[in-house]
Amino acid sequence: MPLQLEIFLEHLLNGLTLGALYALVTAGLSLIFGVVRLVNFAHGDFFMVGGYALFILLNLPWGAIPYPIIVILVTLIVAVFAMLIERLMLQPVLDKSWRIHAVATLGISIVLQNVALIIFTTDPKQVPTPFTTKIVSLLGLRLSVQRIIILGIAVLVFLALQWFVKRTKLGKAMRAVSQNRDMCQVVGIDVPRIALITFAISGGLAGLAAALIAPLLSVTPTMGLSLTLKGLAAVIMGGLGQLNGSIYAAFILGLVESFFAGYVSFAFKDVVSFGLFILVLFLRPQGLFGRRIGL
Amino acid sequence: MTALARARPWLLWVAGGVLVLALPLQYSGGYAINIMINTLMWIVFALSFDLSAGHVGTVSLGHPAFFGIGAYLTALLGPRLGLGYLGNTLLSASLMALLALVAGVAFFRVREVSFAIGTLGAVIIAQLIANNAYDLTGGPLCVKGIARPEFAIPFTDVTLKVIHPLQYYYLLVPLVVFTIVLYKAMTSSRIGRAFIAVREDEVRASAVGIRPLRYKLLAFVVGGGIIGALGSFQAQYVTVVCPSEIALSYTLNLLIIVFVGGAGSLRGVLLGSVIFSVLPRLLEQGGALSIPPAYQQVAYGLILILVVLFMPDGIDGQIRRMTDKWHRSREVEVGEDV
Question: Within an 8 Å CB–CB cutoff, is residue A88 touching chain B?
Fold first, then answer.
């Protein structure tokens, strides 16, 4: 019996880690969709870019930088990267239909994946941090410090995001843009600037996710796609543009996947998560936590 | 002059038809004919996709499912039922049309982005099942040894076995013609105008008595059926069906063809299919200039972004704008002459 409990806790922890990964990715997708009505098919590739940034920073020729500083650097790098992408390629088409957005961001995704392929080849890159191999015992459960860091930071980030969107002036402006862009222009909100900041935050979240969670995986050029797909599923499950709803949905997906993979079948775990997504789509088209409008 | 101008579209079609029929005879090698078969297949695939995506405005990212499942139907049911080429094709087509009907009723409950991502989810599930249901599909080991089409020639004992790419090419032509004629007939009639009404504004369309769901389903079912038939052809052509036939990369290619060519336009989609199928092969064949796949993909992606930025209506829109300008400048000249 205790053994079974341990296995259960193990799957629970795996699910929460996976959920944190999906949630950080999904939050960025959800913000971009909510504020600028753009479905970003290149969002998972932002995570991939973060993964390679982490790989480079961990293997600098002149010795290692402390991991906390690396985390901040990777977050900033991907945030700036996302801003560049927005300014150069997406800003001119932001007022077009979502079909145009889909084609543009798919184009960006193809370019990013293949540039990564050319630079880094298909070999998976391991990015271990000092904490991935450090194990602590908790409640008779052996777990790596990296996982504890992931869960702790994820919770902090979501609380901070909550505060930012609800309380700060910038966050309020983002919510306003998400509800009615034209009126915002009328009252003097700089909509293009809000869009740019949204991309920066979204990219930063993807970068943070990469800096924290890529060490548990390995980095490959094509890793972004499946993340984008899971993230989009969570965004719609949570209710399009509902930031909190999409974060909850991401954790639900992570937990369901982890338990199904552990107890039933590893091969079919994605069938179940996408099946759950489609079920939600049919039963609650507005999403699990969907309201009609706004962030 | 005016008679010629009036006859021009017809002449173009006749010339195109002769070209399609005669061109493969110029090549003895299988490679060139393979490219041509590929081009025809993408024309059929993309036109079926464009019926929904370009005309009704419902962008399904799940169209490859019809292709892959259609191919699997032929691979798995074909030998058990002992159907010939026509039987296999019709079976795949009708079952995929049925699947499109069922999936359509379910997925058209949601719109736009949710619809696109929902259908994307469905195609991922289909691929995962094909990959992991070893008992049924053999998983990544594929279904092999699918029978090649045979035709008994009437009044003789001779059966014609389709083996050479050239034979396959001519076997595919009827499906291409059927698709183009059906596409043209649907989109240039009342149905086509209803499609566009639904695309532009569903609420207003229903206000004038056009039922959006009905037309969305019509385009989806016709497209699904045709793609099912195409999948069946593919199975009998390459004689192997793998899970990769239900690939997301097909969705990507469809988006590239339709949106770079010009969504909702026959000329645009035809141009897109030809360019997309021939250009990469030419790049590969460049010999000294041969470009590794990753660089090709980067070029694709950049083309996609540039088209979206600078030619939002695709190649077709660009051509239309240029010919409009030309016509206008001529009109002015004629006016001055008089």
Answer: no
